[in-house]
Amino acid sequence: MSCIMKNKHKTDQTTMGMPSFNGSMFLLILSLPSFLSLNSEAAPEYRYHYCSNQTTFTPNSTYQSNLNRLLSSLSSNSTHESGFYNTTVGQTPETTVYGLFFCRGDLTPNDCQDCVSTATKVIVQEQYCPVEKVAVIWYGECVLRYSNQSFFSIMDEAPLISMYNIQNITNSSRFTQLLGTSMNGIVTKASNAPSGTQKFATTEANFSELQKLYSLVQCDPLISSSDCNRCLGTVIGNLPACCAGKQGANVLNPSCFVRYEIYPFYTVQAVPSPAPTPVLLAPPPPKASGEITTDSLQYDLATIEAATNNFADDNKLGSGGFGEVFKGTLPNKQEIAVKRLSQSSQQGAEEFKNEVLLVAKLQHRNLVRLLGYCLEGAEKLLLYEFVPNKSLDYFLFDPEKRGLLDWSSRYNIIGGVARGILYLHEDSRLRIIHRDLKASNILLDANLNPKISDFGMARIFGVDETQGNTSKIVGTFGYMSPEYAMHGQFSVKSDVYSFGVLILEILSGKKISAFGQSDTAEDLLSYAWKHWSNGSYLDVLDSDMRDSCSRNEVIQCIHIGLLCVQENPADRPSMATIILMLNSDSVTLPSPQKPPFFLHSRTEQNMPTIAMDSDKSSSTNMPTVEVNSDKSSSTSVQWSVNEASITELYPR
């Protein structure tokens, strides 16, 4: 016999793809292990399922058709050597379904297929989740989930389900100590696995002459290393409260799970030690159901002309380095933003399509989604989701509108931008360096959540570059790191520098350029450093925020911002470390060094000559920079700077 008890702990947390729960934790008590055999022919061991009745679809609707296609695709791709797969089906936000599975790391492809195939059939049955848009089902061998919102690379902590064996262990204190040591070791091993590979680890430890402790941890392969570590910390932290002194326990949530037993519940000999070279997630097969292809992304010119009223001035949203942007409405009433690329690109049609396809596959809640493209005659058009609340600078630098961004909103924007950049740097299938991260490239949705725009533009446009440095610098004055602006050297740490400037702008409500245009010797970085050094932290903050902010969060953000803008790229933290700093009160932050002020001090001997042009963006008057000669080296180069991003894209 078994029973289910709702834990008294409740949460108001809402996560992407998994809504908030009245009872976020469930406790299942198992009388005896129901499986002692690892026979591959045995049916998968059902553990639990969850589906939200707050989001349902109509039977026989387009959404249900897309869900069926998604489940079919997951099942047909369940023999991937990688042991996991994710895909998306649907063309409109209302009918799109996102789904994935990941199998236990020790399973063979056939065993993985058995579990996923079972899960795809069971989850839609009447007693499970027949009409729910959001669902997750756990088996001992695999996890399968889907949602009407993208949850890829996002850690979900709810619901939290705990199960334990009713049999007690002898000498529980020593057992608990052994369990803690075992878990600590394999959490590090699993969370340090590269993104896109199985985040899975096991260990065995001798408890007595007759008993061994077998422990296992695993994370969704798409979440970051820091999120995996945090997720496992949460579920392991629940073990003492739910399962102390028990012979076995299993705690799980949608993004990770842990389990321990005093018998081998996984295939011990199948777990390699040491771990082999990680296998990257293979791309979907060419004809897989629901796969994004260049054909599925292509729109005809007549449709876009009708949507934008033939690119009418009334629909113009702005201009940038790569072209103009117009608002449009498709025949199905979906609102879109159309970027009309300038005709100076020399890129061929097939290369353009391939680059669009790469960028379209990048999906994260903090990135603006690329929906499609049009390539007819001289026209090269990109279709994006329309984000209603314009850009961050539209609010942040307007004396009247900035009041709409309270401290909670600003702190949320900082965290959201950090997660989006981390995805570009580490968690997508490509490594992308944005190189024009700034307030006007951060769009805000209806709930003021940030979405990074203009990533991947240089590849799509065909800007010539080499990995690590470039002869054509693109970016915006004030946001560019010293090594990039001066020498054309770029890396992920170039984006970190820009992110630091952005943090200080969000905190202060002041433009980086506003200081540079003043007659004083002070700029935003020196302004922040001055108040940091003398302890007047809140003086950095927008005066409208000082009575309603969290002082600790403000100090934390100033500290992180100053760490990001240090002159030496090696001294700047990675985006993964920044996320950890933002999410933990226990992390000790290093002391920042005085930031560089080279962009303001134009009279220094090694400064390049800088010519200012007006920036054509409708949302900001940030100047662009043209460097006619680099006086810091003996080689003369031509650098032109415009309002665009460049990316470093390559499979990994």
The computed structural class is: alpha+beta
Major β-sheet profile: 7 strands, mixed
- Gross morphology is globular
Low-confidence stretches: 1-23, 31-41, 270-290, 598-652
Q: How many distinct beta strands?
A: 22
Instruction: Tell me the count of domains.
Output: 4
CATH topology of the largest domain: Transferase(Phosphotransferase), domain 1
> By CATH's scheme, which homologous superfamily of the largest domain applies?
Transferase(Phosphotransferase) domain 1
Tell me the span between the first and last alpha carbons: 48 Å
The side-by-side strand order for the widest beta sheet comes to 1-2-8-11-12-10-9
Q: What is the mean predicted local confidence, pLDDT? A: 78
Walkthrough of the structure:
By secondary structure, the protein is an alpha+beta fold. It contains 17 helices and 22 strands. A hairpin with a 5-residue loop joins β14 and β15. α1 runs antiparallel to α2 (109-122), α3 (172-191) runs antiparallel to α4 (225-237) and α10 (407-427) runs antiparallel to α13.
